[in-house]
Design brief:
alpha/beta; Carbamate kinase; nine-stranded mixed beta sheet; 8 helices; 11 strands
Length: about 240
């Protein structure tokens, strides 16, 4: 398939908060935002309808708060608010680049960000606006992985892209184990049985129930997003029809 012909009409991209840090240990790296803008421009120019679920780990993670003694539910709400900050930062960067974008939040933050309403989001996507989903599912005890799977199903995305810092899913941590083997394709059951860290088990089970394919790839490698939406071999595909 030609590189300039997208295989997918509508996608959901899961972007971790940590991805926004770059080489820093905290916060948002402006250079990373600029790089992301160019990736989203590629998707927009191809006519791909794009939703983004963004994490908040560069600012605050609920599980870290629990480790520090916070109540779990309260810590998760704090993590949701961190994702709102990231969504606003990404939205502003995309707007300054002239790209149409709207941020919506599952957690009400009146006067700051628009609340999530599915029908309205579907209208935005049909208008080719990039939609950024903040605050996960709006409920504690659920990760942004699960939120990404849920939103992908709600908007009718054909595939869920999970952007990471590695080239796909490995049998072990490739940074610690040089013998770790990269998988090109995995079934949902293989992920569950092997306990592979693709996404959390709730997210994988939900994707399996609705046959939603998941592509795990390194978005920091230039050109990978184009290869991914064009259906080229990149990263690790989980579920779907295989390769």
């Amino acid at each position: 398939m030609a590189e300039d012909v997208p295989r997918y009409r509508r996608i959901l991209l899961k972007l971790s908060g940590e991805a926004l840090m770059g080489r820093a240990s905290y916060g948002i790296d402006p250079e990373v935002l600029q790089d992301l803008v160019e990736e989203f421009r590629t998707l927009y120019d191809l006519g791909v309808e794009t939703g983004v679920v963004i994490g908040g780990g560069n600012i605050f993670r609920g599980v870290q708060g629990v480790a520090q003694g916070f109540d779990r539910a309260r810590a998760d709400y704090m993590g949701m608010l961190a994702t709102v900050l990231n969504a606003l930062a990404l939205e502003d960067s995309l707007k300054m680049a002239g790209l149409p974008v709207r941020s919506v939040s599952a957690l009400p933050v009146q006067g700051v960000i628009e609340p999530y309403v599915r029908d309205r989001v579907l209208e935005y996507l049909a208008e080719k606006k990039i939609v950024i989903f903040a605050a996960g599912t709006g409920n504690p005890f659920f990760t942004t992985d699960t939120a990404a799977t849920l939103r992908a199903l709600e908007i009718g995305a054909e595939i869920l892209f999970k952007a990471t810092k590695v080239d796909g899913v490995y049998s072990a941590d490739p940074m610690k184990d040089p013998s770790a083997r990269k998988f090109d394709y995995l079934t949902y059951d293989e992920v569950l049985e092997k306990g592979l860290r693709v996404m959390d088990l709730t997210a994988i089970s939900l994707a399996k129930d609705h046959n939603l394919p998941i592509l795990v790839f390194n978005m920091q490698k230039p050109g990978n997003i184009l290869r991914a939406v064009s259906g080229q071999k990149v990263g690790t595909l989980v579920g779907g029809e295989g390769r």
